[in-house]
UniProtKB/TrEMBL annotation:
Keywords: NADP, Oxidoreductase. It comes from Serpula lacrymans var. lacrymans (strain S7.3). GO terms for molecular function: oxidoreductase activity, acting on the CH-OH group of donors, NAD or NADP as acceptor; quinone binding. GO terms for biological process: fatty acid biosynthetic process. This is Uncharacterized protein.
Length: 293
């Protein structure tokens, strides 16, 4: 035990000089834009070798180019996280390039909103597939590289939402999936904890990304040949600072009176992956500005 404590303390103290994730390898899904992109850049800045995965190959490669231009190390692995061959491809590419995996951030996802009485089975099922089945399958594929007792810093981070914690109108599929993610994470924490692996959930409130922008903006993705509109009908744009009078009414349910930036959201991921959270496992970190308390 003393040796373990010394190792953790040494890792933390050394990390400040070399980066909190120096020499570690992180797979981040949905990393072509938004929170995932910010996390990829932040992890790389802290010394991690980053596997940037995204449905859009061009966007994934663009993030890799940013990291490399800044002196970091990254590769792109494009693909649909829900595809049967995705876990084997991304784990294989990671191990072939870097020889190990320290962190998996299951960030990829989207919303497909409809009211309960109008939601068809396929709309419910695809959200469960992407937000619950896909993270499970990726973690399972990576098991041989996590279930090792070698004192390395290893973690799984799964993304949830206030919709998963409290439910949300028009999001029964998303709420169910994001609630299930918490149970998946806690189970990983219990099964893999003896190997030193930490597993945590990060639950976001309002983060200003394409998923929370006004649906009228026209952002969409194609899923199984269908165009899925993204965003929230009539969503308000970001406001600058709590002193802005518009914040009082626009974000009255958020104590900080604003939504988060993608960089702020990514910072929570970095904390959970870093040795600063070396004794945090099975936890759901709420990054919500106080919403829902």
């Amino acid at each position: 035990m003393a040796d373990r404590l010394a190792q953790v303390s040494g890792h933390i103290s050394n990390a400040y000089g070399r980066g909190l994730l120096a020499g570690e390898v992180a797979i981040i899904t949905g990393a072509g834009q938004g929170i995932g992109r910010c996390a990829a850049l932040l992890f790389a800045k802290e010394g991690a070798k980053v596997v940037v995965s995204d449905l859009d190959a061009t966007k994934a490669q663009a993030v890799v180019s940013e990291i490399v231009a800044a002196g970091g190390d990254a590769i792109a692995v494009a693909g649909d996280v829900g595809a049967d061959d995705f876990p084997k491809r991304v784990v294989g590419a990671t191990v072939q390039k870097y020889g190990k995996i320290n962190h998996i951030v299951n960030n990829a996802g989207f919303t497909y909103d409809k009211m309960i009485h109008t939601m068809p089975d396929d709309v419910y099922d695809v959200i469960m597939k992407i937000h619950v089945r896909a993270p499970f399958r990726l973690v399972r594929e990576a098991a041989p590289y996590f279930r090792i007792k070698d004192q390395s810093n290893r973690s799984i981070i799964n993304v949830s939402s206030t919709s998963g914690l409290h439910g949300n109108v028009g999001q029964v599929n998303y709420a169910a999936a994001k609630s299930a993610v918490v149970g998946v994470t806690k189970t990983i924490a219990k099964e893999w904890g003896p190997f030193g692996v930490r597993a945590n959930t990060i639950a976001y409130g309002l983060v200003h990304t394409r998923l929370t922008a006004a649906k009228e903006g026209g952002a969409s993705i194609e899923i199984d040949g269908k165009k899925v509109a993204l965003g929230i009908p009539g969503a308000r744009p970001p406001v600058t600072g709590a002193s802005n009078p518009n914040a009082v009414t626009a974000f009255a349910d958020i104590p900080l009176r604003r939504g988060a930036t993608a960089d702020e959201a990514a910072a929570g991921m970095l904390f959970l992956a870093s040795p600063l959270a070396s004794y945090v496992s099975g936890h759901t970190l709420e990054v919500t500005g106080g919403r829902g308390i």
